[in-house]
Amino acid sequence: MARRVGQVVFFVALCVSTPAIAAATWDCTFTSRNIAGGTTGHATLNVDGDVLTEKTDAWKMSDERLQFPGMTVRFHVLENNDVGLVAAYPQAVRSPDTGPFIGATILTLSKLDGDFRTGSVMTTGSSDFNIGRCTSK
Hints:
Blueprint (H helix, E strand, L loop, with lengths): L1 H16 L6 E9 L7 E9 L2 E6 L2 E2 L6 E2 L2 E10 L3 E12 L3 E12 L4 E8 L2 E12 L1
Antiparallel strand pairs: 1-2, 1-10, 2-3, 3-6, 4-5, 6-7, 7-8, 8-9, 9-10
């Protein structure tokens, strides 16, 4: 009986000491740094537990040479606290045409000032995708 009470007390203490991160939504604007360099866009970030869903609106280059459809990407949250958020979208696939594609897209968000950045680290190199600012909804 004493062992069972000890287990219950431990479980309650663990629940009280573990921070609960509530679902959050961020409204973001960004400037593209890769294919459509200098083009601005909009995304919404929804954080729910260990999943961050980035929904990017459709956008196009100012001279309309390239258009990008809206898209949704689900990231794995690696860190989420009162200072910031770090999430990754890992990929390790093999294509018969191009061979292996291995790497991760990383998303960072400062909750202190709203700075937002996405970029990639791949076996073929690294690059910045988007740099911008987010506000909490």
